[in-house]
Design goal:
43% helix; DNA-binding; alpha+beta; Arc Repressor Mutant, subunit A; 233 residues; globular; RmlC_Cupin_sf; Jelly Rolls; single chain; RmlC-like_jellyroll; sequence-specific DNA binding; repressor
């Protein structure tokens, strides 16, 4: 399914589990509890019944497979970004391509698919959505400008809460410290900007890094590859 840059599929859910794979481009999956950014050559498992919306960044080709509610090889109960192996990628392409496989070939491909899914690695690409109004205000400020370098104390003065209160709430509601949450936000935005064709240097500045080297180091630590390699796919 081709999606144009910034094309959106509004809120919906499914009675079945889904595996969504952007063969190219980047997808942002939004749910009531958080957002997941899905880079190219990765996948996202969306459990049955979870309300979600999609937004594409860069020209995107989205492929989707459905699974019966009782088929859950990773026993996941929330959306999770997965590392898609080359073999798994080819199986997804074969099952979602224009040429419909025969029944026996489809059965064989589906067996391989399930075997591969049991072995894949879950990737830390979730940005939890806080529920406290003060945290939501902080999140909105930083979503609007990820390069905003104000401290938590300075942001607290804007939203009417102390640094200590906000720090405690971030850990309680997101499972992350404030610096960890802000880093995840910046990395999410970096994936989106790179998919839209921005340079590494421009992306680093837009996301609040001191320079390209600091950005590359943070990106590689999170994703195991450099921004240049990521862009090349």
């Amino acid at each position: 399914m081709p999606l144009a840059h910034r094309e959106r599929i509004d809120w919906h859910d499914h009675a079945s589990h889904q595996l969504i794979h952007p063969h190219r481009g980047v997808l942002r999956i939004s749910t009531p509890i958080g957002d997941w950014v899905v880079p190219p050559h990765r996948g996202v498992w969306i459990p049955a019944g979870v309300a979600h919306a999609h937004e594409a960044y860069g020209p995107t080709e989205m492929r989707a497979l459905v699974f019966d509610p009782w088929v859950n090889p990773l026993r996941l109960d929330r959306p999770t970004v997965l590392a898609i192996t080359p073999l798994l990628r080819e199986v997804v392409v074969a099952l979602t391509g224009d040429d419909e496989p025969t029944a026996s070939r489809r059965a064989n491909l589906e067996r391989v698919l399930l075997d591969q899914l049991r072995e894949v690695e879950a990737l830390p690409l979730c940005l939890p959505t806080p529920s406290d109004p003060r945290l939501r205000d902080v999140a909105a400020i930083l979503e609007a400008d990820p390069a905003d370098g104000r401290t938590l104390a300075e942001l607290g003065a804007v939203v009417g809460a102390s640094e200590r209160t906000l720090s405690r709430l971030f850990r309680a509601e997101t499972g992350m410290s404030f610096p960890q949450w802000r880093t995840q936000l910046r990395l999410h935005r970096a994936l989106i900007l790179l998919a839209g064709g921005r340079s590494v240097t421009s992306t680093a500045a837009a996301c609040g890094y001191s320079g390209p080297s600091a950005f590359i180091q943070s990106f590689k630590h999170a994703f195991g590859t450099t921004p240049h390699a990521y862009v090349r796919g």
